[in-house]
Predict the structure.
Amino acid sequence: MSQAPKENPTTPGKKDKHEARRDFLKQSSALMALALTPPLVVKAGENDEAIAGLFEKMPVSMHINGKAYQLSVEPRVTLLDLLREQLALTGTKKGCDHGQCGACTVHVDGQRINSCLTLAVMQEGKKITTIEGLSQGDDLHPVQEAFIKHDGFQCGYCTPGQIMSAVACIREGHAGSPEEIREFMSGNICRCGAYDNIVAAIMDVKQGGHNV
Amino acid sequence: MNQFSYVRPASQQAAIDALTRDSSARFIAGGTNLLDLMKNGVLAPEKLVDINRLPLKNIVLNNNILHIGALALNSEVAAHPLVKTHHPLLSQALLAGASQQLRNMATTGGNMMQRTRCSYFYDITMPCNKRTPGSGCSAIGGMNRMHAIFGDSEQCIAVHPSDMCVALVALDATVLVAGPKGNRRIPFGDFHRLPGTTPDKDNNLGKGELITGIDIPASPFTRNVYYLKVRDRASYAFALVSVAAALDISNNTIRGVRLAMGGVAHKPWRLHEAEKALTGKAPTTENFRIAATVATQSAHPYTHNAFKVPMAQNSIVTALQKAAAV
């Protein structure tokens, strides 16, 4: 039996102990992030637009899932770690952390990328969409619906990355045939081996003419 | 990842100055290889100079020379109408590399600057002359299935991992470079180096030099081209062997031909002798086989990669057949 991962339940209900634990972790990591944010020590050099020293945090502004954020991050923080550790957007998964699995796929200015291989400070002024930003309120995105309909997952860990990649794959015009989908989804590894169902889900959305 | 400072220069000159001043600084563009290396502890720059905001993204045709800015993304270049029309070999090679997510991050200049994927280079507990000069080569007596069969040295048998560069060396591209001493142009075949006694140097860029773009001259290779990549899985893997083949055929005669290979040497490996063997001949499988034999005469395999010699021969024949549509 496979079940959709419930990272962001849209209907409030009784929380099981795992969800309660996750909420606790999210809250405490958010508090931790606040506590650790030092006063900004950022200077602009004569020839530089932005500069941050070894131990300094740097101001970064970006839109994430339609919401404006003014953040303060260390240069070495990846976009993936910013989303998960500082903003508690844990829908985006850390699989390999080396650009080999695709679990961390998000959209930056509409293009899919591996969020583990870019620095948060490089995303100044960008628009980020994560799996949490895909549905419209209670209405799941057509690709999310199709993954459920076609059983496009087993353990679900790669699923947020698969779905973000699939949405982009269709928007790019790279979902014309099962062969093309397999090629253009090859950056997303599924160790449960749900590939056939993932391809079927994407073909279904593409052929259904949904607005993705 | 170790801590580092970060600057985002407002101009090309400021970027070059930042690298010239500070020997532990590195440019970052897409970051897809650099951040991976930093996470593994292979590299630990003290400063990253983010060049992504510099105006080096343009793809334009001037006097039949296609200019591609150093920051043009691999996905943009692969899909660009000028590239697909004038240099489809480059488009094919780009699409054979990485995944769409990585191609959306990786830049033209960064692709050229990527390091080998030799597993001993990545494993900081093992000797590696490329990572730590003088420490020895673990691959020569170790697991060398993925390694070089051409141009290797007693100090390093690593291969360059790029697909894009194999097409660019075949297309006689030129690398445009800006640096503290001004601008210069490097023929693509002279950009990357063979390992020799300095395997730590992948290319001939000087201190503080920045790739600003590449120029590709007009060529007749707009139709009969093929990029063949042989790898352990159908997609999203580095090449065991790859072949860029381009033919200019008229009246059943090969007027011009370009051949280069990836996955077989420390640099994109142009097959000049095989090209000579084919020029003026008919595009037949028999002639392709002769060229493949010529191309692999200097092959020098190791314990686990001898399979690459027949694989290279067969790949050359197949790529030429596909290019010629025989």
Remarks:
- Chain B touches chain A through 39 residues (CB under 8 Å).
- Chain B has a mean pLDDT of 98.
- The first helix of chain B runs from residue 12 to 21.
